[in-house]
Every structure is written in structure tokens, then in C-alpha cells.
């Protein structure tokens, strides 16, 4: 059965009065215990330091592209774990002189554990880091936190400076290696061009034009050689069939031809002198042809025999035939010399044409090989340029990191030995005991009241019996004897 607030309040007051001792005892005892706890509890001291870690790009906006950020928000969990790790704390204890070289492992582990439990770190915002160290004594806490902060700052800065230094050295080695590869590739191309200087694709058009010119020159020399062979054969035949009369006739023919040409220059063909000279020339040519037709030239007469014949004519005193024969022998010697020279020129031109044709035929494979070598040079140069650009960026980033290393990490609040403990004052213990006593006493009274099965009010009897209460008898104390 539900009760109204006006019913519950008197019930609560009545119950509190009945349980007044149960409520009062904790209220009296707990503040006393709080005061005792304030006196007995060990005092704790805390030293703090605040570190400002700025992004390098904010210090120098012009170097945004090469600046390496601290990235504290993502790195903070790992930095917190690293701060309390043995790797860092052993160095801190060594810096403070608390670990001696002769210290055993157990001692080191105990000291590292105590310092690890005393350290805490928090990221405030995006750029502030707060380090705290607690201890039972104020002396030395500032020194301890300063040593911890020094190692912590090294770990904050190390990824940037360390990565830049390692990247710079790595890129320097790769750059030297790529430069060597580029030189080797360029040397291969130079050697290939030197070995195939006349077969390079750049000379293909020039070689085609040169081949056409050489072929045209070869054809011309072949024609000249054929003409020289014919002239030589003609002169040889004439010398072999030498006849003084024929010589006289040829001289007359030459003279008559000259006279006829002169007459035609002055007169027309109907002039009597021109016709007479023409008839004389025809008659002389007929006589020469008739003489040549009836002679039987000796087969196989060589140049030596012809020279002997000329010498014999000269020694016999034939002054008419000797000059003609000697002149013809000189002419045939000149014709033979010219023929031999033309034959050599034709052979040389033929060899050059064949060689040039071979070079043009090899154009395809040579072009393919040259393109492959040039692609290798282009690839090596592209890689070298890329590494050179990255090396310059890494070098600038390293210089920036070294120059601004002390600027983008600053200590805002330096650590110092605390002057007051961080444990709550004694009055707080007393107030806490008082509040605790009230709550504890009220709780005990409530529990005992709920668990008490006795009936104390009229309504309780009516609810329990289901009958109305007509009257109640007051408590009768037993009579004293």
C-alpha cells in the first residue's frame, strides 16, 4: 500500500529518533577517524614541468613543404609508454647518479619501477605536454623531473632529426650510386656511337643521299671506263696496223677537215671550194678505208712490240713515219693509263657503295640498340634527377631541423622542488569523516528499520490484521515488589 509524503516524513522522523544512537555513533566516530587518517597518512609531493612543442611549419611558414612536424596527437600514447619504459628510465637514473656500474639487476629494476610509477604525462591541447613526478619527499623531485624531461625531449625531437639525418645519408649514397650508373650508361652510348659512327640513325638520310650520289658517280665512271677501253682498243688497232700511207692519208684527212670547216664558215655548201674540199675529204676517207681493209693486223701485238717498232722506225731514218708512230704510242700509253685509273676508281666506288649499302642495311638493328641505350640513359638521368631533388629537400629539412631544434621545443614551466604536499589538508579528512559518518549512520538506521518486523502504528495493525482497531491499551509497567 502506497503512502503519501505527509505520512512518510513523520515515519522517517520517528524511525530516526528510535535509531538515534545508531546514527549518532558514526557521526561522532568518523570525523575522529578522519583526523587520525590525516595525521597518519603519508604526505605526497609533486613536481611539474610543461613543455611546448610547436610545429616547425608555424615557425617558418616558407618552409612548410620541407618541415617535419612532431605529430604529438598521434605519437602521445607511444611517448607515454616510452617515458615509463626501462629504456629511458635507466638513462635517467644514470644521469642522476642513482645507478652505479656495480648495481645488480634487482636493484635497477626496483628503482626503475618506483620511478615509472611516480611519473605521469598528459597532452594539453595539441602542443603542450605536462610531466609530473610524485614522491614522499620534496628534495630532488625537481632534479629528477629535469632529467626525465631532458630524455623525453630527446625522444620527441629524435624522430624528426633522426629520420632527416638517416634520409639524408641514405639519399647521398643512392645519389652517388645513380650518378655512377648514369655515367656508365652515357659511356655505353658514347662507345656505341664511336663504334658505329657511320651507321647511326641520324646519318641515315645523309647516307641515302650519299649512296645515290656514289651510284650516279659509279655509273658515270663506268661509262668513262667503257669509253677509255674503246679508245684504247681503237688506238691499239691503229698502231698495230701502222702504215705510212695510212698515216699520210690521216694527216691529209685532218688537214682537209680543217680546211672544209674554215670554208663552210665563210661560204655556203654550194660554193665550188666547199664542194671541192668535201670531195677531197671523201676521197681520202675512201682510200684510207680501202688500205685498212686489205691489211692483216698481227694478233697479240703488245705494247713492248709496238715500242720496238717505233724504235726501229726511228733508227732506220724514216723521219716521216717515226714522229707519227711515237705520237700514237704516247697517245695509247696515255689511254692505257687513263683506263687503269678509271678501273681503279670504279673498283673503289663499287667497294664504297657495297660498304654503304651494308651500313644502311644494318640501320634497323643499330637504331633499336641505340634507342635501348638512350632509354637506359634517360631512365638513369630521371632517377638521378629525382634523387638529387629529394636529397636537396632532405638536406634543407636537416638544416632547418638543426637550426630550429631548440626553438620548436621549449620548456614553459621548469621543474622545481615542491614546497607543499599535494595530499589533502586535515580539515578535508575531518569533513570527509563527518559526511561519511552521516551517510553511514543513516544507512545503518535505514537497514535496521527495514529489517525490524515489529508493528508500531495503528495502520500497521489494521493492515496486518485486516480489522479496524477500536482501542489500544497503553503500556503497563509491572509493579515493583
Automatic annotation (TrEMBL):
Domain of life, per lineage: Bacteria
The UniProt record lists the keyword Coiled coil: yes
Coiled coil regions in record: 168-294, 325-359
Keyword Coiled coil carried by entry: yes
Keyword annotations: Coiled coil, Membrane, Transmembrane, Transmembrane helix
Annotated transmembrane regions: 21-41, 427-451
Protein name per UniProt: Polysaccharide chain length determinant protein (PEP-CTERM system associated)
Species annotation: Roseiarcus fermentans
Amino acid at each position: 500500500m502506497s503512502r503519501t509524503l505527509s505520512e512518510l516524513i513523520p515515519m522517517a522522523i520517528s524511525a530516526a529518533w528510535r535509531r538515534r544512537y545508531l546514527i549518532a555513533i558514526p557521526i561522532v566516530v568518523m570525523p575522529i577517524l578522519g583526523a587520525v587518517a590525516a595525521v597518519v597518512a603519508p604526505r605526497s609531493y609533486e613536481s611539474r614541468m610543461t613543455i611546448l612543442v610547436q610545429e616547425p611549419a608555424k615557425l617558418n611558414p616558407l618552409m612548410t613543404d620541407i618541415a617535419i612536424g612532431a605529430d604529438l596527437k598521434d605519437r602521445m600514447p607511444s611517448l607515454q609508454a616510452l617515458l615509463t619504459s626501462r629504456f629511458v628510465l635507466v638513462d635517467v637514473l644514470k644521469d642522476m647518479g642513482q645507478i652505479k656500474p656495480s648495481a645488480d639487476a634487482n636493484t635497477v629494476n626496483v628503482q626503475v619501477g618506483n620511478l615509472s610509477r611516480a611519473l605521469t604525462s598528459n597532452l594539453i591541447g595539441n602542443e603542450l605536454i605536462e610531466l609530473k613526478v610524485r614522491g614522499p619527499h620534496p628534495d630532488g623531485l625537481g632534479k629528477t623531473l629535469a632529467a626525465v624531461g631532458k630524455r623525453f625531449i630527446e625522444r620527441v625531437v629524435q624522430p624528426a632529426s633522426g629520420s632527416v639525418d638517416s634520409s639524408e645519408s641514405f639519399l647521398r649514397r643512392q645519389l652517388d650510386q645513380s650518378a655512377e650508373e648514369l655515367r656508365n650508361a652515357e659511356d655505353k652510348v658514347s662507345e656505341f656511337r664511336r663504334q658505329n659512327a657511320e651507321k647511326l640513325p641520324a646519318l641515315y638520310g645523309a647516307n641515302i643521299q650519299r649512296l645515290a650520289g656514289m651510284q650516279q658517280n659509279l655509273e658515270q665512271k663506268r661509262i668513262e671506263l667503257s669509253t677509255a677501253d674503246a679508245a684504247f682498243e681503237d688506238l691499239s688497232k691503229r698502231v698495230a696496223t701502222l702504215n705510212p700511207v695510212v698515216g699520210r692519208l690521216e694527216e691529209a684527212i685532218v688537214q682537209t677537215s680543217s680546211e672544209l670547216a674554215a670554208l663552210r664558215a665563210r661560204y655556203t655548201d654550194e660554193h665550188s671550194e666547199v664542194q671541192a674540199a668535201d670531195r677531197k675529204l671523201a676521197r681520202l676517207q675512201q682510200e684510207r678505208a680501202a688500205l685498212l681493209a686489205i691489211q692483216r693486223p698481227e694478233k697479240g701485238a703488245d705494247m713492248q712490240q709496238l715500242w720496238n717498232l717505233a724504235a726501229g722506225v726511228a733508227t732506220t731514218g724514216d723521219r716521216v713515219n717515226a714522229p707519227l708512230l711515237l705520237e700514237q704510242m704516247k697517245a695509247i700509253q696515255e689511254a692505257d693509263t687513263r683506263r687503269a685509273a678509271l678501273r681503279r676508281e670504279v673498283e673503289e666506288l663499287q667497294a664504297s657503295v657495297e660498304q654503304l649499302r651494308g651500313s644502311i642495311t644494318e640501320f634497323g638493328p643499330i637504331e633499336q640498340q641505340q634507342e635501348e641505350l638512350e632509354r637506359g640513359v634517360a631512365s638513369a638521368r630521371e632517377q638521378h634527377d629525382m634523387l638529387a631533388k629529394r636529397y636537396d629537400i632532405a638536406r634543407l629539412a636537416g638544416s632547418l631541423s638543426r637550426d630550429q631544434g631548440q626553438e620548436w621545443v621549449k620548456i614553459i614551466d621548469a621543474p622545481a622542488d615542491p614546497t607543499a604536499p599535494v595530499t589533502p589538508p586535515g580539515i578535508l579528512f575531518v569533513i570527509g569523516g563527518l559526511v561519511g559518518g552521516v551517510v553511514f549512520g543513516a544507512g545503518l538506521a535505514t537497514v535496521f528499520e527495514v529489517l525490524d518486523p515489529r508493528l508500531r502504528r495503528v495502520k500497521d495493525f489494521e493492515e496486518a490484521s485486516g480489522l479496524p482497531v477500536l482501542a489500544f491499551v497503553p503500556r503497563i509497567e509491572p509493579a515493583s515488589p
